[in-house]
């Protein structure tokens, strides 16, 4: 069976999720064409798993100094190019069309009367989940950006709703953790401001991944270019992560038992809601500005949570192979029954939460 799979490429979280889905789809014998939009074609990296892929301009959100600007997003959009991309995409030869919040695929399928399966965190917002920072514009953007006929929403907890756990790789729990090693991923912030913020904490070792690497004169702070393999190596044995409130990275961190300090993008409803969910669940801490005192308190807090999630990608692939039966309560509960929440202290599991 043939699948056309569109992936929002603005941030790396959607691509990370797509890598896991790609492996399971190929293993199941599906013929998959991947499309990525939202960043220049030469800015994608570590894409070998997709066995060749196509890119289009698509739509993306303008961010500056940790805040989304809807005005600049609208001014910088290329509506004529977007419409041309939609009209040029022929989906007639595909059995399934999947969108991970990717608008060209979603709107092309709607134009051609093809059913769209939306797989991703954003589709969880169609249900009653923790929600903050919402306004009518944000709600409309979430609803219309990449609409789907069938939405498979993902979240860290079910909140009593028909949504599934995150799609992530399931690496082994690290045998040893470096208590002073912290991974930092704040790609939407001013990296000079990140450097100034971290420089006082000389007893900790910061590995900062950024789209634009800057020079650090501080031996305890190193800036590194974006790299999937390098990032995973550092994430594996670090004690915690400071990041924006993206869904996928927090999911990976929870799976590995890392403590989390999330700084959501201002005016970005999804990230503000993610931060609220982390706090509500007791899975992480948040800061809404670049706050040195919050960072200091968090650095000296040894508590973390480990959440072991099942292979959700395989669950979804089997669901597709079965013809997409209704994800009723029994189906969803069966998936969540294998989730386990554990307390972690100083990098070691201590007891069930």
Automatic annotation (TrEMBL):
Superkingdom per UniProt: Bacteria
SUPFAM superfamilies recorded: UDP-Glycosyltransferase/glycogen phosphorylase
NCBIfam families in alphabetical order: MJ1255
Protein's UniProt name: Glycosyltransferase
Organism of origin: Methylomonas methanica (strain DSM 25384 / MC09)
């Amino acid at each position: 069976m043939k699948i056309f799979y569109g992936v929002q490429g603005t941030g790396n979280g959607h691509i990370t999720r797509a890598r896991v889905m790609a492996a399971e789809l190929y293993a199941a014998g599906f013929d998959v064409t991947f499309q990525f939009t939202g960043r220049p074609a030469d800015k994608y990296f570590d894409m070998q798993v997709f066995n060749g892929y196509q890119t289009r301009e698509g739509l993306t959100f303008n961010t500056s100094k940790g805040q989304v600007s809807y005005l600049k997003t609208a001014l910088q959009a290329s509506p004529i190019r977007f419409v041309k991309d939609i009209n040029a995409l022929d989906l007639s030869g595909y059995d399934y069309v999947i969108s991970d919040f990717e608008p060209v695929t979603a709107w092309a399928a709607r134009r051609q009367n093809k059913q769209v399966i939306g797989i991703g965190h954003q589709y969880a917002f169609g249900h009653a989940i923790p929600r903050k920072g919402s306004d009518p514009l944000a709600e409309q953007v979430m609803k219309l950006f990449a609409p789907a006929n069938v939405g498979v929403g993902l979240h860290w907890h079910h909140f009593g709703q028909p949504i599934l756990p995150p799609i992530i790789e399931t690496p082994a729990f690290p045998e040893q953790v470096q208590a002073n090693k912290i991974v930092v991923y704040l790609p939407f912030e001013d990296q000079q401001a990140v450097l100034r913020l971290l420089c006082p904490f000389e007893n900790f070792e910061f590995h900062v991944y950024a789209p634009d690497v800057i020079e650090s004169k501080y031996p305890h702070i190193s800036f590194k270019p974006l790299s999937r393999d390098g990032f995973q190596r550092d994430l594996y044995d670090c004690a915690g992560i400071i990041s924006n409130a993206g869904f996928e990275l927090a999911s990976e961190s929870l799976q590995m038992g890392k403590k989390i300090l999330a700084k959501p993008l201002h005016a970005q409803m999804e990230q503000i809601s993610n931060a609220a969910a982390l706090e509500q669940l007791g899975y992480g801490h948040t800061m809404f500005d670049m706050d040195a005192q919050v960072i200091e308190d968090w650095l000296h807090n040894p508590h973390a949570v480990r959440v072991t999630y099942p292979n959700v990608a395989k669950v979804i692939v089997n669901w597709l192979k079965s013809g997409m039966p209704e994800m009723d309560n029994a189906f969803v509960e069966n998936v969540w029954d294998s989730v386990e929440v554990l307390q972690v202290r100083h990098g070691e599991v201590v007891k069930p939460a």
